[in-house]
Amino acid sequence: MSLIKIRTLANADVPLSQIGQMLEADASTFAEAVQEIDSHLREEIERLETSRKQIAQLGAGDRLALPAEVTSYLDRLREIGASERMVEAERDGWILVAARWPDHIREVMPWKLTQLDDPQIVRLYRVLSEILESGAGDDLRLEEAADILAGLAEQAYTSGKMGYDDLAFDLIDALAAESNPRMLDLMRERGWAGWTRPERLAEPPAKPGVDRRQ
User: Fold this and answer.
1) Residue 86: pLDDT above 80?
2) Strand partners, 199
3) Can you tell me the distance from the alpha carbon of 90 to that of 172, in angstroms, rounded to the nearest whole number?
């Protein structure tokens, strides 16, 4: 019986000196020591389980700080051809949204996924991804992006649905800090002031060399 006790306690990493004291103790003292060891083992198991979850999260990427609905949306962005840099910008924006308005995520995400079925939105993501990757300040792709944005703004204005999601403003806001300021000028040329929340101008500004009084 003593050998079984010694082996069991040793397998539980109980020091040999403590095992010797336990074997010499009376039944009541031995039982108390076993309970203390069991409590210690439970705490260690809980600590290890927590560590396992944390280690698993390290490899989870976007899933570490975002609801499943958002990570599915980010995966969909990758599928339609958005660059990883663009996806990362979107991810950072959604982390803020999830922290500030957690209940809003479930309301808006189904519509955001549906939005990615629009060829114009898909093209916008791809063009803006190319702009981000190239870093070109006078890239013709800026013109195309401005055309798409102005077209979306016109559609929303005509339908009377000038809303945040109508123009994918989360995408535009995520990009704004890294974008070329020339995009604002391009949008004004197309009759819109701003590009994160565009406002329709009463009249597009005249291009250089054009006198509207004629």
Assistant:
1) yes
2) 193
3) 9
Number of CB atoms found within 10 A of residue 198's CB = 25
Nearest to 175, CA basis, from 64, 82, 67: 82
How far is 91 from 99, CA to CA, in rounded Å? 12
Q: Using an 8 Å Cβ cutoff, are 139 and 131 in contact?
A: yes
Q: CA-CA distance, 210 to 125, in Å (whole number)? A: 33
d(CA 185, CA 145): 12
Please state, in angstroms and rounded to a whole number, the distance separating the CA atoms of residues 74 and 58: 18
Q: State if pTM tops 0.90.
A: no
Other CB atoms within a 10 A radius of the CB of residue 168 amount to 20
Name, in order, each residue with C-beta under 8 angstroms of 111's C-beta and a sequence gap of 6 or more: 165
| Residue 114 confidence (pLDDT) above 70 | yes
Reduced to 3 states (helix: H, G, I; strand: E, B; else coil), residue 199 is strand
Give, in order, the Cα–Cα distances in Å from 108 to each of 70, 166, 188, 204, 214.
10, 11, 29, 33, 48
Beta bridge partners of 200: 192
**C-alpha Rg value of the chain to the nearest Å:** 30
* Least confident range of 3-17, 63-77, 92-106: 92-106
DSSP state of 82: -
Q: Look at residues 102, 118, 110 and name the one whose alpha carbon lies nearest to residue 167.
A: 118
